[in-house]
Amino acid sequence: MDPTVAHFLDEFRPASRGDVEVTGTGALPSAFAVTDFAAAAVGAAGAAAARLVGRLTGRPAHVEVDRRLASHWFTGTIRPVGWEIPSPWDSVAGDYPTADGWIKLHTNAPHHKAAAVAVLGTDPERGAVGAAVLRWAATDLEDAVVGAGGCAAALRPPDDWVRHPQGRAVAAEPLIDIRPGGEARGSVRPTGDPARPLAGVRVVDLTRVLAGPVATRFLAGFGADVLRLDPPWWAEPGVVPEVTLGKRCARLDLCTEADRAVLWSLIEGADIVVHGYRSDALERLGFGAAARSERSPGLVDVSLDAYGWTGPWATRRGFDSLVQMSSGIAWSGREVSGADHPVSLPVQALDHAAGYVLAAAAIDGWTDRLERGTGSVRRTSLARVAKVLLDGPAGDPRAGVRPVDDGDFAADTESTSWGPARRLRPPVTLDGRPPVWHLPATALGSVPLPAHWGIGPE
């Protein structure tokens, strides 16, 4: 195995490194070893699924990862036929020079955009925003936008992040923090199907762009019954066709008593819950981790936040691109390339890698529940996943990976909510069998709540 892939596998899943075979050639050009990072993250999730197969059948499956396909899955998997996916980026979002450095404004959500332009006191137009940003020091504007409920990150060098109180807090956290849950009530439903080891497992998906939906997409590919829930007002049209593959998508308004009661019923009937809310968000709604464990003690409870679960930024809003700015990744990209502006990774590698780490955590939690009869709480963060990349071997900015061609796509056309599309073949197999998604990508809120989700635990 390539030593760089082996290094990242040791970070993601040291006990299973020898059970993963990585094939293929090529690498995404970057100051960081992004393709090795991607292949290892996919391999870690595959190894978790292989362990579950071993629990069900007595023989763990062999995991094979195609590093080239992993690179392209971190880029995007869907190719529309006769229609287009809108850009995920708002016109104001992006990097801006400040009076003393650089800042990234993340304005894809309307309320985040409103917060940023309110602080700047300008029209929501890129030129006007840029002129206003130039009057601010980077960290002062970062603090102001975040304080107003928006999302922003100043460009920092890696050494500054290492010394920063939040950087130190993240460094002290494990990659996956695991805490015990309660004893499962009633019987567990293992199917024993080695091709779909998660068949019958019910997953409540409370995630949005991008890591959490990647995790639950992986779970669906190995048979899980995934129900994604979104508020009535939420939309992410540039991302949904990519990540709702294999899922049912419904809506709940947690501002109403009736829908809060529905969510409790769903949680009580679920085996796994995955959420990507800030660490205090569900607490404020009455759905905190302690309450979830009390209502569903055998639950496998898996969660992600941006900047870690401890430290002064534990409740800060964040996204992959912001963590790259804060942690020094975009600074290092600039230094290596000789550019005069921040240089981010060629793909949203933190999001995607964190998604596979979350998927592995969820599958491991389910396997442990089968073995011990108890639930667990498992959590990680984009910033902690970023530390794995930052501490790893360097990449090659001159590298390249062969583009996708017609043979890289699945044979069947996918009938999505928006029209026909083709989907890249999965980058991972278990005993030569890839994950299979029996439902096409679907629009948010496209189905009513399935009747079987209204029951309590068996």
By DSSP, the count of extended strands is 16
Order of strands, main sheet, comes to: 7-13-12-11-8-9-10
| Proper CATH architecture of the domain at 170-309 and 346-394 and 442-454 | 3-Layer(aba) Sandwich
Low-confidence stretches: none
Seen as an oligomer or otherwise, the chain set is single chain
Structural class: alpha/beta
Largest sheet: 7 strands, mixed
* Averaged pLDDT: 94
Number of helices: 17
The global form is: globular
What is the C-alpha radius of gyration, as a whole number of Å?
A: 21 Å
Report helical residue fraction. 25-40%
Describe this structure in words.
The chain is globular and about 60 Å long. With 458 residues, it is α/β, with parallel strands linked by helices. A 7-stranded mixed β-sheet has the order 7-13-12-11-8-9-10, with helices on both faces. The protein is built from 17 helices and 16 strands. The protein has a domain at 170-309 and 346-394 and 442-454: Crotonobetainyl-coa:carnitine coa-transferase, domain 1 (Rossmann fold). Helix content is 38%, strand content 16%. The mean pLDDT is 94.
Concise overview:
The protein is α/β, with parallel strands linked by helices.
What's the SSE blueprint?
Blueprint: H1 3-12, E1 20-23, H2 34-57, E2 63-66, H3 67-75, E3 78-80, E4 94-97, E5 102-105, H4 110-120, H5 126-133, H6 138-147, E6 152-154, H7 158-163, H8 165-172, E7 177-183, E8 202-206, H9 211-221, E9 225-230, H10 240-243, E10 247-251, H11 257-269, E11 272-275, H12 281-284, H13 289-295, E12 300-305, H14 320-327, H15 329-337, H16 349-372, E13 374-381, H17 382-390, E14 414-416, E15 419-423, E16 428-430
Parallel strand pairs: 1-2, 8-9, 8-11, 9-10, 11-12, 12-13
Antiparallel strand pairs: 2-16, 3-15, 4-5, 5-6, 7-13, 14-15
